[in-house]
Design goal:
Helix content is 31%, strand content 33%. By secondary structure, the chain is of the alpha/beta class. The longest helix has 18 residues. The radius of gyration is 21 Å and the shape is elongated.
Length: 252
């Protein structure tokens, strides 16, 4: 099988190549290190038989790749973090391997691939994996947030006041006033956050109950929610969603 490795850590890519050699029947055609490099490669080359892809690359998240090109071959994600598993299964992934990766992990991924002989069968399997992951998962208690300098910092979900869209980017603000960029959509965050503590106010905002400072009556029988942190625009709840908001806020 012709395999493509997308990994920005030299030691990790070398280890994976050794694992693939031991697993057998693999030819690693190249190793790519960045989002930009990967997009250019797929635009000029035929798809390999399988892709082993890390999520955190040198110039950003691997999920940015899928926003620019369509990859139709099977993908095995290789990462040190388990928080992206649900997102991974939505982009043609057949497996999600946590580092350090062993030979039996790759062999198990191959067994899954052999069962997925058609694209239709593959999609059914992916949908089943998504459903299983949703049923078995708990709401997120922590986020690992990328910051400048190729670093990840852990942040407790309970320390986050809100999530919002700002010029097409998803951001979150802490109660201490720090702002971070996240690699999620608001719809994905809506599935990951505990609805007991977080509410989808509108298309732009998810807010924490603890962050609500006060509420104003607004035009056309709407509500304007004021938070105890600074946000770029007013948070307005439509008239139709007010009963749901009141029920959530009161804990009923």
């Amino acid at each position: 099988m012709k395999a493509l490795i997308i990994e920005d850590e030299i030691l990790a890519s070398k280890h994976l190549q050794q694992v693939l050699d031991e697993a057998g029947d693999f030819i690693v055609i190249t190793v790519l290190e960045s989002v930009r490099e990967t997009i250019k490669w797929f635009e000029k080359n035929p798809h390999p038989d399988i892709v082993f892809m890390d999520i955190h690359l040198s110039d950003g998240s691997a999920f940015e790749i899928f926003k620019n090109i369509k990859i139709e071959c099977p993908i095995v994600f290789t990462t040190a973090y388990d928080e992206y598993a649900l997102k991974a299964f939505k982009v043609n992934s057949i497996d999600y391997l946590l580092k350090p990766i062993e030979v039996n992990d790759v062999q198990e991924a191959l067994r899954k691939l052999k069962k997925l002989s058609t694209s239709e069968t593959m999609q059914v399997a992916i949908n089943n994996l998504i459903s299983t992951f949703k049923r078995g998962s708990k709401y997120k208690t922590h986020f690992l947030i990328p910051v400048k300098g190729d670093k990840l910092i852990p942040v407790q979900t309970s320390d986050l006041a809100c999530f919002y869209v700002d010029t097409g980017t998803i951001k979150t603000s802490t109660f201490e006033g720090r702002t971070y960029t996240l690699d999620f959509t608001l719809d994905e965050l809506g599935e990951l956050l505990d609805p007991e503590h977080f509410f989808r106010a509108n298309r732009q905002y998810i807010i924490s109950r603890k962050a609500i400072k006060d509420i104003d009556l607004w035009f056309n029988s709407r509500l304007s929610v004021n938070l105890n942190v600074v946000v770029p625009e007013k948070i307005v709840i439509s008239r139709g969603r007010i009963p749901e908001f009141k029920s959530w806020f009161s804990g009923r």
